[in-house]
Write a structure and sequence with these properties.
Helix content is about 35%, strand content about 15%. The protein has helices at about 5-15, 25-30, 65-75, 85-90, 105-115, 135-145, 175-180, 215-220; strands spanning about 35-40, 60, 60-65, 80, 95, 120-125, 150-155, 165-170, 195-200. The longest helix is centred in the first third of the chain and has 15 residues, at about 5-15.
C-alpha cells in the first residue's frame, strides 16, 4: 500500500470516529452558527530539533497533524491545514499555502485568515497532541462574552500566553498582514492593535510541543 493510500485510509477512519456533533460542539452552536467557525492547523515548520517532519510523526497510530486536526474538528466541525499542498496532500485535508514563505507561524495565521469564509477561526500549531477540546471551546466562548473581541488566547497567571492556540476573527487579517509586511515575525507582537481576550489556564500540559525526540519519548511513555 502506498503512503498516500495509507494516510487516506487512516484519515477516513479518523473522521468516522470524530464526535464533531458532541457536547462541545452543541454548547457552541447556541452562540455561534457552524458556518461561522473554521479550524486550521499550521504545518510545515523546519522541525530541525526533531530531525524529521513533526506533522508526519506517528502518534498512537496516526500522523500528528491529523491527531491535532481531529481535536480541532471536534470543536469547529472542520479542520484544514496551512502549509505546502504538494508535500502534505496525502493527509487528505484541504491545504492552504503560505504567501509569506519561510516567515514562521504568523505567516500561517495570515494565510488562514486571508482565505477563510468563517468569522471565527481556531488556529493551532500541529505539534500539540494533548490539546483539550473543552479549553478550545472556552476560547470561542470568551470571544462572545460581550464587547468587540477580535480573538482569544490562553494565558497563564505570570502573563505568558499561547499564541499558537488561538481564536481569531477574520477581521484580524489586515492587521496581521500589515505586521508581516512591516517585518514583524512574533505572533504576539502582531496583536497590539487588536482586542484580544485571555482565557486563564493553570497548566501548560495541553500545549506541550513535540520539538525533540526526547519530547516525543516523554509523551509516548506518559
Amino acid at each position: 500500500m502506498s503512503i498516500e493510500q495509507y494516510l487516506t485510509d487512516l484519515f477516513g477512519k479518523l473522521v468516522k470516529n470524530l464526535n464533531i456533533n458532541g457536547n462541545i460542539r452543541n454548547k457552541l452552536s447556541c452562540r455561534i452558527e457552524p458556518k461561522n467557525t473554521a479550524g486550521w492547523v499550521l504545518i510545515g515548520g523546519r522541525s530541525s530539533r526533531m530531525g524529521v517532519d513533526k506533522a508526519l510523526l506517528s502518534i498512537e497510530g496516526q500522523p500528528l497533524a491529523l491527531r491535532v486536526a481531529g481535536e480541532v474538528a471536534r470543536v469547529c466541525g472542520s479542520a484544514s491545514l496551512v502549509g505546502d499542498p504538494e508535500k502534505y496532500r496525502a493527509l487528505g485535508l484541504p491545504i492552504v499555502p503560505d504567501e509569506f514563505h519561510g516567515l514562521g507561524p504568523l505567516a500561517g495565521i495570515e494565510a488562514a485568515l486571508r482565505v477563510t469564509a468563517a468569522d471565527w477561526n481556531l488556529i493551532v500549531a500541529c505539534d500539540m497532541p494533548a490539546l483539550d477540546p473543552s479549553l478550545l471551546g472556552k476560547l470561542f466562548e470568551a470571544c462572545l462574552a460581550g464587547g468587540n473581541a477580535d480573538g482569544a488566547l490562553p494565558a497563564y497567571a505570570d502573563g505568558r500566553v499561547e499564541p499558537l492556540c488561538g481564536v481569531y476573527h477574520r477581521r484580524c487579517h489586515p492587521s496581521i498582514r500589515a505586521a508581516l509586511e512591516a517585518g514583524v515575525r512574533k505572533v504576539t507582537d502582531s496583536l497590539g492593535t487588536l482586542e484580544i481576550r485571555y482565557v486563564g489556564v493553570a497548566s501548560d500540559a495541553p500545549f506541550a510541543n513535540l520539538n525533540t525526540p526526547e519530547d516525543l519519548r516523554k509523551y509516548t511513555n506518559g
